[in-house]
Amino acid sequence: MTAITFAQSKVIKQFHALIENTRKKGNTDKDLDFINSTNITSDLFAELAIARRDTSYAVRNIVYQCIVIAGIESNKLDLRQQATILLLSSYNDIDKNIVTRNIQSLKQFKINDFSDSSKILLTKIISEISPLQGDIILLGGFIGGDLIKEGIRVALQNSFDKRLSYTCHLALARMGDTAEIHQFVNALSHISATHPSFERLLLDIIYTKSKSAYNRLFELMAKNEMCISSNPDNTEKIPCAFRIIEAMAGSINDFPVKLLPGGDLAGDYKLALEKTKSWYDQNKATYQIMTYKY
């Protein structure tokens, strides 16, 4: 038996032990480091697919955590695609906490990790009215494809909720619909970084992955407006540009400044601002946005 074969056999035994221990103790706070890129196989996914139907909430919860890890860590496309369809298939789970976490987890995958089967399933889910419908629509806007786009248009036509309609328009903009992008960017021309709703809007701008929308952020960054700090212990205003830079940094290739694991800017903030301004002046026409990420 080779080392790899032994590792693959061992991980299934460890998974079985995890399930039995969880079923007995009902404790889902487990160390899942035993799943890694060297031992993730179709056999493991077969076990995961069966175990996710367990009647125990604790077991299903831990199984879906394993599916997320196995999908993200796998270096094989077909296994990553198995992970996304298993997570989407949990939409009908009786426990909505599991469903919510799984939908959020799907945002960690890349576009190619969603197969045609996943897109068909997602399109069906989009039409279902639920508290998660908006999140599903935004996920669809990220994944893209004609089938999903049509599903979002139908949801838009049937929507009587302003927030859901806005979400549909946002998803269509993410999918590259020129009319939707134009409408969205035009609305941004009237927004200041000091506006109370800007922090929420900032997340929507980043989501669109639209270069014209990002250019508007760079313009706002250059205005040097001052905003209230998100730190309740800090009563002094800070440059709104810091917040903008932190939001953009993870979505643009070769961005000149880096973020700490918690999402804050690394190093001197003022220096980061100057570097970003200079970088944008030099790369305005050529910078690329990471559209393959949520």
- Terminal Cα separation, in Å? 40 Å
Low-confidence stretches: none
Mean pLDDT: 92
Structural class: mainly alpha
Strand content: under 5%
How are the elements arranged and paired?
Layout: H1 3-25, H2 42-51, H3 57-73, H4 77-89, H5 96-105, H6 116-126, H7 133-143, H8 146-158, H9 162-174, H10 178-188, H11 198-208, H12 211-222, E1 226-228, E2 237-239, H13 240-248, H14 269-283
Antiparallel strand pairs: 1-2
Helix pairs in contact: 1-2, 3-4, 4-6, 6-7, 6-8, 7-9, 8-9, 9-10, 11-13, 12-13
Précis, in short:
This protein is an all-alpha fold. 61% of the residues lie in helices and 2% in strands.
List the main descriptive attributes of the protein structure presented here:
2 strands; mainly alpha; 61% helix; 14 helices; 294 residues; two-stranded antiparallel sheet
Report on this structure:
- The protein is mainly α and 294 residues long.
- The chain is 61% helix and 2% strand.
- The chain is built from 14 helices and two strands; from the N terminus they run H-H-H-H-H-H-H-H-H-H-H-H-E-E-H-H.
- Helix 1 (3-25) packs parallel to helix 2.
- The longest helix has 23 residues, at 3-25.
